[in-house]
Specification:
Number of strands: 12
Largest sheet: 4 strands, antiparallel
Order of helices and strands: EEEEEEEHHHHHEEEEHE
Strand order of the largest sheet: 1-7-2-5
Distance between the termini: 46 Å
Strand content: 15-25%
Radius of gyration: 31 Å
């Protein structure tokens, strides 16, 4: 994004933090930036941008950075760092200048939690639909609500002192000294211990199932990364090729045997990262940003489907970038046609 700000102490935005890593490049004029560290751990590396802060909110807080950017200067701000900027007042006898800066953003929705948000639901669904195990489809224990939940906590803090000590001894595996408690209290203690055992058994069964889902999630990491990759391709701009790249594209080769590709034709991916190969429903599917609109999400992705046998050749193509080339006849495939 490009930001043009009028001169003489003008400020475009109230103090705030963003959900992106920002690189600010000053192009014209100058601008004073004040940057503050996150106010709490929950606001460190946030997943959403903040509401506007007021000057009162920042009273008594010293900025980590208080600098005036001149043309050619660059400022980096991590996610969650509060910032505000304004054009300085013109110096005496000099006319005030506008400010023009470019902000390049990165790392939006690019945290571990974003990957796990994809992985965990899919892993849960996969285990739930398993053809080899009914682990997650098994019924919950009968009457488990009679001993699980906060209302059934048996931590012992609310027990009489005698019962508390006896319960603690049993929990630690020490011999029970019940000389100071009556029969009613003994029965209450036995009920507590029964409940504690039921809770431990339930938690152990839940843990087994949770670990089964986690194990499945680990096996699906590559698929989850492919989902993140597809989302990135959908979000990004189409590649803007330079003249030397345009000359080498197939569309510009129409005067060379009508642009046909032969076994001895040299080829490579035009730019690193503009396409990704995934396997979906028994097909090799190539996602790319070549048809993306310059308007955000103006065009949907237009994936290309191939047979799985084509995957090795496509992999070679997608990983061959400048300065390397690959000859068509060297692409792994059973049939040169």
């Amino acid at each position: 994004n490009a930001y043009l700000t009028p001169p003489s102490n003008s400020q475009g935005f109230a103090p705030h933090y963003d959900d992106i890593e920002a690189f600010v490049l000053q192009l014209e004029g100058s601008k004073r930036w004040r940057v503050y560290s996150p106010m709490s751990m929950t606001e460190t590396l946030p997943r959403e941008s903040s509401a506007d802060y007021t000057e009162k909110d920042l009273e008594g807080i010293e900025p980590v950075i208080d600098e005036i950017l001149e043309p050619g200067d660059m400022l980096y701000m991590p996610r969650g760092w509060i910032h505000q900027a304004h054009t300085p007042l013109g110096k005496l006898g000099a006319s005030a200048e506008h400010s023009l800066h470019l902000t390049v953003s990165a790392m939006q929705n690019w945290a571990w939690v974003d990957l796990l948000e994809i992985l965990m639901p899919e892993a849960l669904e996969s285990v739930a639909r398993s053809e080899t195990s009914t682990t997650l489809r098994d019924g919950l224990p009968r009457d488990f609500l009679n001993y699980m939940g906060l209302m059934h906590d048996v931590g012992g803090e609310d027990l009489p002192e005698g019962l508390k000590q006896a319960s603690k001894s049993i929990a630690e595996g020490k011999p029970e000294d019940d000389s100071d408690i009556d029969e009613t209290e003994k029965e209450e203690l036995r009920q507590i211990e029964r409940k504690r055992k039921l809770q431990a058994r339930f938690k152990e069964e839940a843990k087994k199932r949770i670990m089964r889902v986690c194990k499945e999630a680990i096996s699906m990491i590559d698929a989850g990364c492919d989902q993140i990759g597809k989302r990135f391709l959908s979000d990004r701009l189409p590649p803007a090729y330079n003249i030397s790249e345009i000359v080498l594209t197939n569309e510009s080769r129409t005067n060379q045997a009508a642009g046909r590709i032969w076994p001895n034709t040299l080829c490579r991916l035009a730019r690193p990262g503009i396409a990704r190969l995934v396997l979906e429903d028994g097909k090799a599917v190539l996602y790319h940003c070549g048809d993306n609109s310059r308007v955000y999400h103006g065009n949907p992705l237009s994936p290309m489907e191939f047979e799985v046998d084509d995957a090795p050749a496509l992999e070679t193509l997608l990983t061959t970038v400048e300065p390397r080339w690959v000859v068509v006849s060297d692409l792994v495939h059973c049939d040169i046609e």
